[in-house]
Amino acid sequence: MWHDQIGSSLVVRNAESSFPQGAGSRYVAKFRNLQFPKETLYDNVCFVPISLGQEYHEGSKLHSIMQLVNKTFKECVVIVSDMLHRHTLRIVDPDLTMERAFVKSVNIGRQWVENNADAWADLSIPYRIVYWSDLLGMEAYADHRQQLDVFCNEDDVACNLVDDMVGYFVEAACTEGTCSDEKLRVAALSREYLLEEHAIQLRMLPQMFPQHHFVYPHTKRLDPLMDFYERMTGSTCRWLRVRISRKDHAE
Fold first, then answer.
1. Neighbours of 227 (CB within 10 A)
2. Are strands 239-246 and 212-217 parallel, antiparallel or unpaired?
3. What is the per-residue pLDDT across 7-20, written as a single tens digit (0 to 9) for each?
4. Both ends of the chain: CA-CA distance in Å?
5. Closest among 183, 157, 151, 154 to 170, alpha carbons compared
6. Would you call 12 exposed, middle or buried from its count of C-beta atoms within 10 A (0-12, 13-18, 19+)?
7. Residue 68: C-alpha distances to residues 61, 113, 173, 192 (Å)
8. Could you tell me the CA-to-CA distances from 198 to 8, 62, 100, 126, 165 in Å, in that order?
9. Which residues pair with 50 in a beta bridge?
10. pLDDT tens digits for 134-171?
């Protein structure tokens, strides 16, 4: 499941991609409100989870993130969230079947790798490309997901934090005039997205790689995620917020 090189066998062509590559302004990425001494990061594995379809994970903005990772960590794992993206696709398209969403999400993930390979081509640290579909297929996932479901059912604070994150998804996907049934549909898909994501990124991978950090652009949905992790483990969440700025506007 750990792909150290990108070969043509890993790519499905002709998938959808809406972002131009290699064009536009250049950016610089910096850590925002770093909670760990920077020197303690150097011997850690860095996970870069990719949100497919987000502008900050495309082109020169992605390149700036990878440059920051390259000078900060000993190893990088890029997580291409292909199959996780199936939930987002179904939120956007109510008529999309589960089967078609599986196929479409995998195709989009492979195309993303092909389009953005130059972002990690010049890394001086070892790197790996891992697909969400591989992580989801691991035997450990089912156990972590079951434990997470039990935790959320038994801990009211954790349950409320998940509700907060679901609310962020619903707010982003729905307009003021969206009917209640549609909001409930979006909320159900969003909850499944979040619990699947948390089981892998907050439980399974941290257990596999104790010395790790996740690097992700700053968004408001990171706040309840970090609170959720600390509630679940009693430890500080190892998600590092990144701010991406135009080089001519960077501090």
1. 17
2. parallel
3. 222 222 223 333 34
4. 39
5. 183
6. middle
7. 11, 19, 31, 31
8. 31, 23, 24, 26, 11
9. 80
10. 999 999 999 999 999 999 999 999 999 999 999 999 99
Mean pLDDT of 33-50: 92
Give whole-number Cα distances, 123 to 8, 108, 126, 186, 221, in Å.
20, 24, 7, 38, 29
Tokens representing residue 77 in the block: 């794992």
pTM: 0.86
Encoded tokens for 55: 């502008």
- Print the SS3 string covering the chain: CCECCCCHHHCCCCCCCCCCCCCCCCEEEEECCCCCCHHHHCCCEEEEEECCCCHHHCHHHHHHHHHHHHCCCCEEEEEECCCCHHHHHHHHCCCCCHHHHHHHHHHHHHHHHHHHHHHCCCCCCCEEEEEHHHHHCCHHHHHHHHHHHHHHHHCHHHHHHHHHHHHHHHHHHCCCCCCHHHHHHHHHHHHHHHHHHHHHHHHHHHHHCCCEEEEEECCCCHHHHHHHHHHHHCCCCCEEEEEEEECCCCC
Cα 106–chain centre separation: 15
For residue 200, give both structure tokens. 């892998």
CA angle, 104 as apex, 98 and 107 as ends, to 5°?
Answer: 145
- Give dist(CA 11, CA 177) in Å, integer: 40
Over the range 184-199, which residues count as b (16 or more CB within 10 Å of their CB) and which as e? ebbbebbbebbbbbbb
